[in-house]
Write a structure and sequence with these properties.
Layout (H helix, E strand, L loop, with lengths): L3 E5 L21 H17 L3 E5 L15 E3 L4 E3 L5 H4 L1 H10 L7 E3 L11 E4 L2 E6 L5 H12 L4 E6 L10 E3 L4 E4 L13 E4 L11 E3 L2 E5 L3 H9 L4 E4 L2 H4 L10 E2 L1
Parallel strand pairs: 1-2, 4-5, 7-8, 10-11, 13-14
Antiparallel strand pairs: 1-15, 3-4, 6-7, 9-10, 12-13
The protein binds citrulline.
Citrulline binds next to loops.
Length: 257
């Protein structure tokens, strides 16, 4: 059960965010991104979360994607080591917000040469599946496993071969339900899940967000919406079109705990 979330407002420099154009085309429009972000925060609040919405930071174009510089769980927080130079400093900027909720003895750090971004980290109860990707390396996963192992978590590394982060290609809802690409459907690590394969033309909608029984689904993906509704979840549609242009999606816009 989540009770809190941390978000961070998009900054004007958002237009310089890193993009592979894997999902969208064009440059984000700042004013529209702000509106979409406000709606996202309002949706989290509607679901009962107490949201700390941090001010935007013009030094870091991608800093609204707060999921990446930290991983939070009931027992502790792990400050990651984002792989790209333009994002690495976000790990320092998120720390004061994390300190409001965790004492220093329960805040850990991924150190170089380890790299990690939270978009690669998928929690399933007491098990973390961590993507080995361009952003998260083996040493990052090793350090993470050592940290969370103290609190009884298991860690399984999952190679990410299709693009940015693990959670662009596999997302856990609850009760064993996992949204996956055709490639992740074959991943041995996920063999025991109830896997729902999302069509390639709706790839972006895999990154839906389960919060306390409800699923936030990005607007504009009717097939995925139907699949999630057929599983019995109430859904809330959220437009993330501006963030999509720079590979951002629903989970990356918040830390939930
Ligand atoms: C980046 O490439 O780092 C950003 N433009 C997008 C990050 C998205 N984060 C996420 O999915 N967790």
């Amino acid at each position: 059960m989540f009770t809190k979330a941390i978000t961070k407002k998009p900054c004007r420099a958002l237009i310089d965010g890193i993009t592979t154009s894997q999902f969208g085309e064009g440059t984000p429009v700042y004013e529209d991104a702000v509106k979409q972000h406000d709606k996202y925060v309002a949706t989290l609040r509607e679901l009962g979360l107490e949201v700390t919405d941090l001010e935007g930071d013009e030094r870091y174009p991608d800093s609204c994607f707060v999921e990446d510089p930290a991983v939070v769980m009931a027992e502790c927080a792990v400050i990651t080591n984002p792989a790209r130079d333009s994002r690495n400093g976000e790990k320092h900027e998120i720390l004061p917000a994390i300190r409001k909720f965790y004492d220093d003895a329960h805040i850990f750090h991924i150190e170089a040469p380890g790299t990690m971004e939270g978009g690669d980290v998928m929690q399933v109860d007491k098990h973390f599946y961590v993507g080995l990707s361009d952003r998260t390396n083996e040493e990052g996963v090793r350090q993470f496993a050592e940290i969370v192992g103290q609190f009884g978590y298991e860690v399984t590394a999952v190679p990410v071969t299709e693009g940015l982060h693990l959670k662009d290609f596999a997302v856990y809802l609850d009760k064993g339900n996992l949204l996956v690409t055709a490639v992740m459907n074959e991943a041995p690590a996920f063999a025991d899940f109830n896997r729902l394969v999302i069509d390639a033309d709706e790839l972006y909608a895999i990154n839906s967000l389960y919060i306390n029984g409800t699923v936030l689904v990005p607007e504009g993906y009717p097939k995925t919406l139907k699949i999630i509704q057929n599983l019995g979840y109430p859904v809330k549609l959220v437009d993330t079109g501006e963030f999509r242009k720079i590979d951002g999606s629903l989970t990356c816009l918040s830390l939930r705990f």
